[in-house]
Amino acid sequence: MGRFSWGASAKNRDMRVSRKDIPTSPVQEEAEAAKSGDYSTKGTLPKYVWVLGLFVTALFAYSIEVTPARISNAIWFNHLFSEYRPPRRTHMNLTHSRKSFLSKTVRDPIDLWSPPPDNGWKPCLIHTDFESGSDNGYLQVMCSGGLFQIHICVCNAVAVAKLVNATLLIPYFRKSLVWKDPSQFGDIYDTDHFIAYFEKDLRIVRQLPEEYAWSVPDLYAERCLERPNCLTYVRKHSTMNWYLEKVPPLLQTHGVAVLDGPTQYSGWDHKLTFEGLPVHITQLRCRANFEGLQFVPAIQEFGKLLVNRIRAKSLAVQSPNLAPQMTAPQPWWSTQNNEETLSGSEMLSGNSGDQVHRYLGLHVRFEKDMIAHSACYYGGGRAEKRALAAFRAKIWRGGVSKTRYKPEALRMNGSCPLTPDEMGLLLSGLGFPISTPVYMASKNLYGGVARIKPLKEIFPILESKYTLASTKELRPFLPYSHKLAALDFLVLLNSDVFMSNAAGNFPNVLSGQRTFYGPRKSIHADKRLLAHLFSKSSISWLEFSSQVTEGHLSRLGSPVRRMPKYSIFRYPAPDCMCQEPKQAVG
């Protein structure tokens, strides 16, 4: 929420109008907004309205912040005091054309819910048979960011510790300036399982021995450069040789080597290459990703509850006569407590073909930080541009490279996150009917309920953790963004079809897991194609539907061989999967 304008003189108002038509480059506007920190919107209100507003905001801010399940009750306050004014509805001609087209009898495509072909790829994780020889010292790693930035950080930490033959201290999670979650490893992940799982590969400890007790996270916060045993400003995707050159000398001299970010809000995450690593190191990272990191039982059980509830709703909508007679199937992870661990395809089989329990998972990443970092424009006027520029200056001190380009160019290049209504139009264009149950994973969407309303008109059965569970049930998770993200992850992982509107760590890890444990249909939106289609104001629904269907035939989640420098977390083949030879026809 931005600062408020307490009124302006006529002279200042005239100046704002006169400057309106002066062209400025994106960089100039960014610098101006960051310098001024001006969050104000056009026009002013009487001073007493702002005083009343501040009083009411202060009175209710705490309850709004800590109880997102009641966010709908706070919409009036959010809209009154936000720097963002939702724009008018877009793509109206296409929306009207869709309604006219769907008023006729239209059958769902036969393969709408079918999983994509696996192309012969199967999960392939190799367990080593030798005891760990970790005796060179201790590796201490600081992670930060969203939950799946942290997830990647931990997986990389396992690989680097093995690479340098160090004992790994359970990674420390720094509180992110964006996510503001104080949770530590044991609050999210099953520590006992993590340590036991790697006992034949790597020694992992919960705390340093007494002789190294001085090495605490606060010692390195924003002071890593001053500590001789700490490495920061590590280049993204640093090579094996870099770590072998830099880390062992620190272990030998100090006993503890630390990998940290340059600020107290940053950490070490995407700092290990995907190329040129020994097979056993790559496999160790794969195993950490798919098997080593498991959520604590409380998160797993509540995720299971949410999945059962949305499948029950799906049953009630699609087969109301059967609803009283049937129960929702169990999610795949309900078997994880058994003595025998299920493999790959067995873990996610069973629900995919069950027509009466199907649901679609939607990752709507449209929060303020994502929109600000994209440098795209979403119709909120000068107030939106200034507010997002000031937000960028606060969060990303080094700047955001995309601000060098015009928003229109970014959009046509496919670099802008889809709005919720654009996601709905795409899914409807692919053939998903209005009766499709949709689970929406999101936090605080930029623009509030005004952004969700068009999506809900397309898919009225729109659920989330806040609608599937009561405030009382959610209370243990509500203050913690990482725990909430973990719940969303489990529900989306178990969905029959999944789609995300933006690139990022969450959808990358999720898509990779759905590929590995499936494959299950994961739609990867062609945002460049969609930008082109949405720019055609006179396009008919029939043409739109035909083009998006054809344009996404190869973007449905089938395993494909990872290209150089692409993420192993998004594309697990061939590093974590094996391809079976094609059977000869004859």
From TrEMBL:
<keyword id="KW-0812">Transmembrane</keyword>
<comment type="similarity">
    <text>Belongs to the glycosyltransferase GT106 family.</text>
</comment>
<dbReference type="GO" id="GO:0016757">
    <property type="term" value="F:glycosyltransferase activity"/>
</dbReference>
<keyword id="KW-0472">Membrane</keyword>
<keyword id="KW-1133">Transmembrane helix</keyword>
<dbReference type="InterPro" id="IPR024709">
    <property type="entry name" value="FucosylTrfase_pln"/>
</dbReference>
<keyword id="KW-0808">Transferase</keyword>
<dbReference type="InterPro" id="IPR019378">
    <property type="entry name" value="GDP-Fuc_O-FucTrfase"/>
</dbReference>
<keyword id="KW-0294">Fucose metabolism</keyword>
<feature type="compositionally biased region" description="Basic and acidic residues">
    <location>
        <begin position="11"/>
        <end position="22"/>
    </location>
</feature>
<protein>
    <recommendedName>
        <fullName>O-fucosyltransferase family protein</fullName>
    </recommendedName>
</protein>
<dbReference type="GO" id="GO:0016020">
    <property type="term" value="C:membrane"/>
</dbReference>
<keyword id="KW-0328">Glycosyltransferase</keyword>
<dbReference type="GO" id="GO:0006004">
    <property type="term" value="P:fucose metabolic process"/>
</dbReference>
<feature type="region of interest" description="Disordered">
    <location>
        <begin position="1"/>
        <end position="38"/>
    </location>
</feature>
<keyword id="KW-0325">Glycoprotein</keyword>
<keyword id="KW-0119">Carbohydrate metabolism</keyword>
<dbReference type="InterPro" id="IPR052272">
    <property type="entry name" value="GT106_glycosyltransferase"/>
</dbReference>
<dbReference type="Pfam" id="PF10250">
    <property type="entry name" value="O-FucT"/>
</dbReference>
